[in-house]
Specification:
This protein is 15% helix and 40% strand. The protein has helices spanning 9-15, 122-134; strands at 20-25, 30-36, 51-58, 60-66, 74-79, 83-86, 91-96, 102-109, 118-119. The model has no long low-confidence stretch (mean pLDDT 94).
Length: 135
């Protein structure tokens, strides 16, 4: 049985300097924290079989979503203390539109990233995901 994970998630999220860091991976969910530089983004993506919960702890962003990569029909401005749930199969991107690092945490159900993964930059994350999909 996996140990219970506890933390002050607001502090852990705000203190994180990595693009993405996996904090906990369970059988049915995964907790990650992210730090998105000013003017940067998570990157357009879809999780075909994974629901995703996102909560912003610092900054402001534009959440772009849609049913297909070429039909992103919704844009919502979100900021600190806002949350979003992105259902499986929804294309989405989070773009930092503020003047400070965007700090957020995300819960995937089920897990999406390797347990314990730390991606210091978006380039590191992109390379890791490309390597996962190549195998």
């Amino acid at each position: 049985m996996k140990a219970v994970y506890t933390s002050n998630i607001e502090d852990v999220t705000k203190d994180n300097t990595n693009f993405r860091m996996v904090l906990f991976t369970g059988e049915y969910s995964q907790l990650t924290v992210m730090s998105i530089p000013v003017g940067s983004e998570i990157g357009l993506e879809v999780h075909p079989a994974i629901d995703q919960f996102i909560r912003l702890e610092q900054g402001q962003a534009k959440l772009v979503t849609g049913p297909t990569k070429d039909n992103l029909d919704s844009e919502v401005e979100i900021k600190s203390d806002w949350a979003a749930i992105i259902p499986a199969g929804t294309w989405h991107n989070v773009i930092n539109t503020g003047n400070q690092e965007l700090k957020l945490y995300s819960v995937y159900s089920p897990a999406d990233h390797p347990d314990g993964a730390v991606h210091t930059t978006k380039a590191d994350a992109d390379a890791a995901e490309a390597a996962e999909h190549a195998t």
